[in-house]
Amino acid sequence: MDLAKNIVKYRKRNNMSQEQLAEALNISRQSISKWETGENLPSIDNLISLSGLLDISLDELITGEPYLHFPFNYGKPKNHWPQIILVLVMVIFTASLTTLFGRTPLIKVFDIIFGILISYTFVTRMSFYDYKRYCNYWTLQKNGITYAVDSEDDISFGKDFLMPLMGLLNIRSTKFIPYKRIKSMEIYLKLYGYNPSKELTLMGGAGISASSMVEQFELRITLLDGKKVNLNLNQYYWKDSKERKMLGTIVTFLKRKHFEFIDKQGIADLLRDGDGSLTQELYEQRDGN
């Protein structure tokens, strides 16, 4: 059963032997062994003690998945520091241009426009940080999903260019989908035609690279009226993100809804079973390695 497997899993993750865990709980090693084989179950008091010793919630200990709090904002940045840095770079670069070359009012106007455009483009397009997250994040709720309207179609270059600015000005436009309007949902990770032998690792994450370089990871929703909505899952690639921790639980929650859930790549099982690189496991699975 799941509880028995979870006790083994989290005991080993905490580098504890059966003897050490038994000593901490003031019980026999045989009791731990019987829990881990499913022969016996821990009492309520022991479950509470286990969750504390293994540093996990009761939900995670019993089900193997962390508790899902609603609403859950997937991909929404935690703070505004990247936006503050963007504004500072734009101001400093533009001020430098006008100081050095703004000899006449007309040239100063040109320098301001040019400086803002160049600095905005450089920071939002060349930075490792995905500034579009301030605009295109989505929210999971108990009765449906709220998403940015730009998720309905393939994003044009113009929209893609303006999304960081829309997030900065907080002019994001959203729509709400009740679960009863969903016909099907597919979780899909678009692999490259080849298995990259080298990956740019960012902040210790497995398979993390600049936002424009990672494999596209998304939920593809088809509504009853035929409309398509794509929800970006790329924030999963960041090793310590809440999205990485909660995606398996989110998938389990969505699979219980009364619409078709499609998972041709077996991603749900990989999310539940492994701590390794999801992309690498999918490449190996595809290539038969």
From TrEMBL:
<feature type="transmembrane region" description="Helical">
    <location>
        <begin position="107"/>
        <end position="123"/>
    </location>
</feature>
<dbReference type="GO" id="GO:0003677">
    <property type="term" value="F:DNA binding"/>
</dbReference>
<keyword id="KW-0238">DNA-binding</keyword>
<keyword id="KW-1133">Transmembrane helix</keyword>
<dbReference type="InterPro" id="IPR010982">
    <property type="entry name" value="Lambda_DNA-bd_dom_sf"/>
</dbReference>
<dbReference type="Pfam" id="PF01381">
    <property type="entry name" value="HTH_3"/>
</dbReference>
<keyword id="KW-0472">Membrane</keyword>
<protein>
    <submittedName>
        <fullName>Cryptic phage CTXphi transcriptional repressor RstR</fullName>
    </submittedName>
</protein>
<keyword id="KW-0812">Transmembrane</keyword>
<dbReference type="InterPro" id="IPR001387">
    <property type="entry name" value="Cro/C1-type_HTH"/>
</dbReference>
<feature type="domain" description="HTH cro/C1-type">
    <location>
        <begin position="7"/>
        <end position="61"/>
    </location>
</feature>
<feature type="transmembrane region" description="Helical">
    <location>
        <begin position="84"/>
        <end position="101"/>
    </location>
</feature>
